[in-house]
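Hi L.,

You mentioned the student needs an example of a multi-chain input paired with its predicted structure. This one should do, with 350 residues in total across all chains.
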Amino acid sequence: MEVLDRQQALLSNYEVYVVLQEEDHHHKEIKEKRKLRYPENVTTLKFEALQYLNDTPCTTQTAEQISELKKTLAEYELTKAEILQIINLRPKTPVELHFIIEECDERFGMEDLEQLAEIVVNSLPRDDGVEEEEGDEGQDGDEQEADGDAVMNGD
Amino acid sequence: MFVLVVLRDTLKIVPADFRKARERALKDEINNKYANRVLHDIGLCILVHDILEIDEGFVQHSEGWIWVKVTFRMIVFRPFREEILLGRIRSSSETGIQVSMGFFDDINIPAECMPEGSEYDQNEGVWVWRYDDNALYMDLDEPIRFSVVDSKFLDVSPPRPTKDEEEGTSMARQPPYSLTGSIAQSGLGLLSWWQ
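Structure written out for the whole complex:
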């Protein structure tokens, strides 16, 4: 085996989630046929990784939402890694943005952060159940209805 | 937390897999060989993302399978420095706490990476952060948010016999890839602290 490129790109959780789900689907097809063997290491990893990602905001994301959000975030001076973290973690409050963005205080004011948090919540709609001050989330349920499968009971 | 790594390898398609489409057979073989495996200096392999190039296959003298050289892209778990990750507390000891992400277990948050005022509670066997008058316990299985401060690859592949064999130390499992996390920053630590 040779490594041609150690890091061609960063992947968002959503992109990984999609591949894992495809593999899961493929696995189920194989199971129905009962003829082909399916390796245990793949089963284990697939199960554990899906279980982990199922608890993250990526389950309700779509490729369109993510590229829209990336476009919107382009006007803020964020690094690639920071944008990736915003997509993966879906920060809903300035506090959460604070630890994602490096040297946040010097680069962004409180207003910017509040704006950013609002953009994130609106661009990656998700049914969070009961959560404080997120009344405006319901307003734009455009293009994607993200409710239903997101059961995040606060804990 | 995930990156795309381009790899090239010679893979085997066994006769039982001849019925599969070529690309499917190769993807299965790649996953079979790489999934859940740590590549040194690369990270933990998840699944194949896609195949970029498939060379002509060849059959070697006296063998019944096909060898194919393939260039493919692998999804690899390798968080960058300062990345914020979410896990659950797996165990605690005086030296720190161990965190698991389900598919990856070798994450350690050492005592010096805890918020100021943290100490190990001998009776309870858990860490506690004393903040003003509050005692915030870091109980097992609690979701915890941390930042990655360091990562370490250990070459564990050659199991060559050592001369001075100390049973105790050599038997201890050394993870091929481990992360060091920190929760000494506001917003990090147990999720329940910041809600």
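You could point out the following to them. The interface with chain A takes residues 1-9, 16-17, 20, 31-32, 35-37, 39, 41-42, 46-47, 49, 71, 73, 75, 78, 80, 82-84, 86, 101-103, 143, 147, 185-188, 191-192, 194-195 of chain B (CB under 8 Å). Chain B has two helices and 14 strands.

Best wishes,
N.
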